[in-house]
Design brief:
The complex is a heterotrimer of chains A (358), B (232) and C (301). Chain A is mostly helical and 358 residues long. Chain A is built from 14 helices and 2 strands. Chain A has one domain (3-350): ABC transporter involved in vitamin B12 uptake, BtuC. The longest helix of chain A has 27 residues, at 221-247. The N and C termini of chain A lie far apart (47 Å). Chain B has helices at 43-50, 72-77, 95-102, 110-116, 118-121, 133-145, 163-177, 189-195, 219-231, and strands spanning 5-14, 17-27, 32-36, 57-62, 65-66, 80-83, 151-155, 181-185, 198-203, 206-212. In chain B, a hairpin with a 2-residue loop joins strand 9 (198-203) and strand 10. The longest helix of chain B has 15 residues, at 163-177. Chain C has helices at residues 2-32, 39-56, 63-90, 97-119, 145-167, 169-179, 181-185, 191-217, 226-241, 246-267, 276-291, and strands at 124-125, 135-138, 141-144, 221-222. The N and C termini of chain C lie far apart (41 Å). The chains are: A mainly alpha (358), B alpha/beta (232), C mainly alpha (301).
Chain lengths: 358, 232, 301
Amino acid sequence: MTRARVAVALGAIFAVFFALVPFISLHVDWVLPGTVNVVNSTGTLEVLALCFIFAGVALGYDVMFGFTGLLSLGPVMYFATGVYVFDIALTRWNWPLASALGLTFAVSLVLALVLGAIALRVSGIAFTMVTLAFAQAFYYLIEDNPHGLTGGDTGLALSTARLPAFMSGAVSNTRNLYWIAFGFLVLAYAVVWVVTESATGHVFVAIRENERRLEVLGVRPFGYKLASYTLSSLVATGGGVAYILLIGTAVPSAVASTTVTLSILVMVVLGGAGTRWGAVTGAILYVYLQQYLLKVAAQPSFATLPSFLRVPLSQPQFLLGAIFVLFVLFVPGGVAGLVSRRRTPSLKQLVAGQRRKQ
Amino acid sequence: MTNAFDVTDLHVTIGGSHILQGVSLEVPRGGVTALLGRNGVGKTTTLRALLGIVPATGTVRVMGTDVLGWPTHRIVRLGVGYVPEDRDVFAGLTVEENLRLAEQTPEPHYDEVYSLFPELRARTRQRAGTLSGGQQQMVSIARALLNGWPLLLIDEPSKGLAPRLVSELAEVLERVATLSTVLLVEQNLAVVRRLAQRVVVLDHGEVVHTGAADELDDPVMARRFLGVAGAS
Amino acid sequence: MTVFLSLTFSGVALGAIYFLAASGLSLIYGLMDILNFAHGLFMTLGAYAAWDAATHAPASWGAPVIFVVSLVAAVLGGALAAGLTEVLVIRPLYGRPISQILVTIGLDLAATGLLLGAFGSNPQSLPVPLWMMEASHFAGISLPNADYVAFAGGLVVLIALEWFLRRTRYGIIIRAGVENRTMVSALGINVARAFTLVFVIGGAMAGLAGLLYAVVFSGELVSPTQGDSLLIFAFIVVVIGGLGSIRGSAVAALMVGLVQDYTNFYLGNHPGMAEIGNLSVVLLLAVVLEWRPRGLFGSAL
């Protein structure tokens, strides 16, 4: 069997396994993130669904960062677009599901094309900073609660009145929401697979490797970069929609702040930028660990630890940040680089449009 | 006496292109050795590899010391002055600051530098970016001479200069060559004939010929070494 | 008119703080190509160092002395944090600029997490002399003394930095390195020392900025994420001013401070426009980049 076939077979096995998780009522100690130590408990299914959502978003981000070499710090803007536009259409305007979905992706597409075109006027670090600034502006806009639409700091709970019954946030529906999240990941994976293996995807990689050489060959990189940016944004928006369905409420600090962007970046690098399954693995590990560490820190026995252990261990952000630093220093290829014998692109090669000093 | 430079089997790969493919050359102490070849054969890259500016494999000895893998500043401090292609003066710094930056010895040779380039003395406060090309070249050479170092790497000093300036430059380099060993990359055949005793010819990232400079008097040889453009 | 003058002056004070934060970022970027996300952390740590020093200093020293002590602590705290960052995590990654950016992101996340764990998300109150909050009248305008202190701090640092960059050997090395790092080492200079130095200088200024921001604009409160929110504006200032240019940072910092202050005051009271000051700064960035993609004072990028 060729390597590609092994990969497909492994992927299929994982997919079938995760699709069947809601039926596994096995009791497992220690490793589950939910409060009840049963595989298909509501808590664990929710955490896994969150893992899938961020895995999809990270995968989309990887198209732009890992494959095309564009270090954007704005993906959270498109994630938040998915969360808020969908939420507002359903909750404030009482739109039917299909129209709400259509509007959400239309807004995301227009935003990505317009803001992407502006940001891509500059390259390298300036691009990074501009995307960061746009995302921050978007965050302020949401906090501002214009026309009472977003709910500002207090957030906006999703009204489920216009949703089909099986999608509503009831606990009995967790399993359905899990499948929606999983479906989003599978769809995102399929789209990203097709695009990155296509001729367009090869141009993305060529932009990452040597944009100037591409220009010499007569290819104008701008359109490809915008395409990569837009695809990644639309995937993030899809993740936002799945997120609001699962979590049921939108709060700016949780879905629109720069911290979310940085988490997505950390997920991709941990897993291995420039590889599809690396980004997915990184995101799943990250979200799972984050939720699991929160559960551990909440245990009563945890309070008996001396403070020099309790303080750092109670902060998933500290532990994940520290793991990330160690990975960047010592495991540049991420998890994918550790596992795969095929050399993953080193971070050095991901420098896009970086200033050359003679 | 050890050679100024001993290079064996030098390989350099930049951005996927294998630019130097096993360069080996010896530069004896004293006089001028010219490194010749068409555009793009790796002359500049050879100089940059000698200084550790681009990563390379093989061996590089500077006055007998194996320097491969050393950081650039340590190689330079062995006593190597560098005049890069395109001069690379610091445009935002004054002439004085450009020179001050190059000071590496307690008693920099300002007198010698100003006697070679009296023009610079009057322009110490001028920003180097506002100088003419010829004046920038003076600053660049002055930086390399300031410490009285025994070895000099000079990359296409005549590039972009008016013919009158080229002959003035050649005169200066003639005086410089009486004090230091020079490895010179140069496309202007007249300058090479006037200065060099030895020539090393590169082609496609390899040394294809080593010999005495007077071989260049034969126009057929000259065309072979330098390409049509260079021999004209 | 008096209102406008007061606004102008407090906008300048805000600009002074942005300058302190941004000039270090700009130098670090100019010399090393690093977008330093840990800069927000240096600001936060400076503010915490000041808080720690001020709360531990004996009350008998008197408020003014204690404030000076906390000022010194902020500068030293920021400088120390930055120096350690450069030596421990940046240095192993020389030649890999993207990894260096990532490592500063990780460091910022980890250390902010640690601060959240240690102090919680509630801010700490920084002891500040009462005099700082009293208003002084000057040229017909009335502003808290803290604003003047911020302005003076920014001005002193600008002058000192210009002097350092123009008159000292290391200053010249840094300016030359911003232009062409390779040529600096080809003159026999160990550029890596300059790398550590710009981090230490940048960190010291960031520490000062962190303290002044807490005193002037956040009600003498110190919180773990304060530096990160300031960092975004510092980034915007650096891009508007032109990466690597100190004067560009100074001009852009004033522009951003003033635009933010004016729009906040004149438009911020309208419903749904509470964040107009922040939004207009981003708009300013977009306009400047459309007009000059390399920033106001930016040279080759």
